[in-house]
Specification:
Order of helices and strands: HHEHHHHEE
Strand content: 5-15%
Strand order of the largest sheet: 1-2-3
Distance between the termini: 9 Å
Helix content: 55-70%
Structural class: mainly alpha
Radius of gyration: 21 Å
Length: about 120
């Protein structure tokens, strides 16, 4: 999985556009518009969102292990009771409930220690 975000793709497109010289563009040539936008539309559509939540590696493991077996409500309740496999995981979830819920719901997040973008299957 690429770590390229939509913002990265936009920056690349902006650079490509700025590097075009006026003499390269025939104003009446409609194929110009298609040639510059079609591949970028695909790249942009496949890029990652810019605002993925960042969570600890041990919390990432908890989501991967629990998703599909438990509900988000169960995970939050167990964290509140310090009933998860690790107190560190429980403490982090309790201190970052919104981030945890977002990662759980989106199914995609950044692992803080590695910078890796991962999800349920990753």
């Amino acid at each position: 999985m690429s770590n390229e975000t939509k913002r990265d793709v936009f920056g690349q497109l902006l650079n490509a556009y700025q590097n075009l010289s006026v003499k390269d563009i025939e104003i009446h040539d409609e194929s110009y518009r298609e040639n510059i936008t079609t591949p970028w539309n695909i790249v942009y559509a496949n890029a990652l969102p810019d605002d993925l939540p960042t969570i600890l590696e041990c919390v990432s493991k908890e989501i991967k292990d629990g998703y599909g077996k438990n509900s988000l409500l169960d995970e939050l309740a167990w964290a509140n009771q310090d009933a998860l496999p690790s107190s560190k995981v429980s403490e982090w979830i309790n201190d970052n409930e919104a981030l945890f819920a977002e990662a759980w719901s989106r199914g995609l997040w950044v692992v803080k220690e590695t910078g890796e973008v991962t999800g349920y299957d990753g």
